[in-house]
């Protein structure tokens, strides 16, 4: 049984704005996604990293990936949704990955992931019957909004966590779950839950956040500099 990483990177970054998809925006002198992929390639337990880009991605070939090459394969199999990109990627690697092998699905946009966080996920879930994901407990009071941006309720947060990635599930069950789920599912755990399974949460921290809006790039740079990333 082996561990593989699958990185959905076929999004357009609409909430970031601009012409260049956010995964290719410069971060400490490299495309943002280079940090993500380098971290996953640095995890000894991960046998290989697959990255799923859009079929018409015009940015990938403009960058140098040679430092990661032995452990990285690019798949031009992006889909219309994140779930579609992940399912396409899982199908594309089915001949190379066994059904019982673990797939760590990680957002390209979570560029501040630390090797130690990946290793904590693997350590916690290696013998788990279902799999699970990195997550953090909700720290803010949550409001449900109604018309006119008026609060209609305060949502009890004592059992609410924010899902992150990697999300770690076995290849066979995960592909089956995604194929049975509508594209609207927003993470791999949601597809597994739809089958009645209960993924396990592994506590991470806010540094593993998803770069989504313009200010997030500055936050990501600060976090990486604080780890003295070259
Ligand atoms: N059709 C899609 C949509 C998203 N993603 C990937 O899924 C991750 C998380 O999605 P998100 O942060 O929403 O990225 P975008 O869809 O690019 O952002 P936006 O929603 O602002 O357009 C990203 O690494 C993105 O590249 C993907 O592979 N295929
Ligand atoms: C997978 C994810 O990062 C978990 O929080 C999140 O669901 C991705 O959502 P997005 O809208 O595709 O960024």
TrEMBL record:
<keyword id="KW-0548">Nucleotidyltransferase</keyword>
<dbReference type="InterPro" id="IPR029044">
    <property type="entry name" value="Nucleotide-diphossugar_trans"/>
</dbReference>
<feature type="site" description="Transition state stabilizer">
    <location>
        <position position="22"/>
    </location>
</feature>
<comment type="pathway">
    <text>Isoprenoid biosynthesis; isopentenyl diphosphate biosynthesis via DXP pathway; isopentenyl diphosphate from 1-deoxy-D-xylulose 5-phosphate: step 2/6.</text>
</comment>
<feature type="site" description="Transition state stabilizer">
    <location>
        <position position="15"/>
    </location>
</feature>
<dbReference type="Pfam" id="PF01128">
    <property type="entry name" value="IspD"/>
</dbReference>
<keyword id="KW-0808">Transferase</keyword>
<comment type="similarity">
    <text>Belongs to the IspD/TarI cytidylyltransferase family. IspD subfamily.</text>
</comment>
<dbReference type="GO" id="GO:0050518">
    <property type="term" value="F:2-C-methyl-D-erythritol 4-phosphate cytidylyltransferase activity"/>
</dbReference>
<dbReference type="GO" id="GO:0019288">
    <property type="term" value="P:isopentenyl diphosphate biosynthetic process, methylerythritol 4-phosphate pathway"/>
</dbReference>
<feature type="site" description="Positions MEP for the nucleophilic attack">
    <location>
        <position position="157"/>
    </location>
</feature>
<feature type="site" description="Positions MEP for the nucleophilic attack">
    <location>
        <position position="210"/>
    </location>
</feature>
<dbReference type="InterPro" id="IPR050088">
    <property type="entry name" value="IspD/TarI_cytidylyltransf_bact"/>
</dbReference>
<keyword id="KW-0414">Isoprene biosynthesis</keyword>
<dbReference type="InterPro" id="IPR034683">
    <property type="entry name" value="IspD/TarI"/>
</dbReference>
<dbReference type="InterPro" id="IPR001228">
    <property type="entry name" value="IspD"/>
</dbReference>
<comment type="function">
    <text>Catalyzes the formation of 4-diphosphocytidyl-2-C-methyl-D-erythritol from CTP and 2-C-methyl-D-erythritol 4-phosphate (MEP).</text>
</comment>
<protein>
    <recommendedName>
        <fullName>2-C-methyl-D-erythritol 4-phosphate cytidylyltransferase</fullName>
        <ecNumber>2.7.7.60</ecNumber>
    </recommendedName>
</protein>
């Amino acid at each position: 049984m082996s561990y593989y990483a699958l990185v959905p990177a076929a999004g357009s970054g609409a909430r970031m704005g601009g012409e260049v998809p956010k995964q290719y925006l410069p971060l400490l002198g490299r495309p943002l996604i280079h940090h993500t992929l380098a971290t996953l390639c640095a995890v000894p337990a991960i046998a290989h990293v697959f990255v799923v880009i859009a079929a018409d991605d015009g940015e990938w070939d403009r960058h140098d990936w040679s430092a990661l090459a032995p452990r990285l394969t690019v798949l031009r199999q992006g889909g219309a949704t994140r779930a579609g990109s992940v399912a396409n990627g899982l199908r594309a690697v089915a001949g190379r990955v066994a059904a019982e092998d673990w797939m760590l699905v990680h957002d390209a946009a979570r560029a501040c992931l630390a090797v130690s966080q990946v290793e904590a996920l693997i350590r916690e879930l290696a013998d788990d019957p279902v799999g699970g994901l990195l997550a953090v407990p909700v720290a803010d009071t949550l409001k449900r909004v109604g018309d006119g941006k008026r609060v209609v309720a305060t949502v009890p947060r004592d059992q609410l966590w924010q899902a992150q990635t990697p999300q770690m599930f076995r290849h066979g069950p995960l592909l089956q779950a995604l194929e049975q789920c509508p594209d609207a599912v927003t993470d791999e755990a949601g597809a597994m839950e739809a089958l009645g399974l209960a993924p396990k949460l592994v506590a991470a921290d806010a540094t593993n956040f998803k770069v989504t809006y313009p200010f997030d790039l500055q936050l990501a740079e600060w976090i990486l500099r604080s780890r003295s990333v070259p």
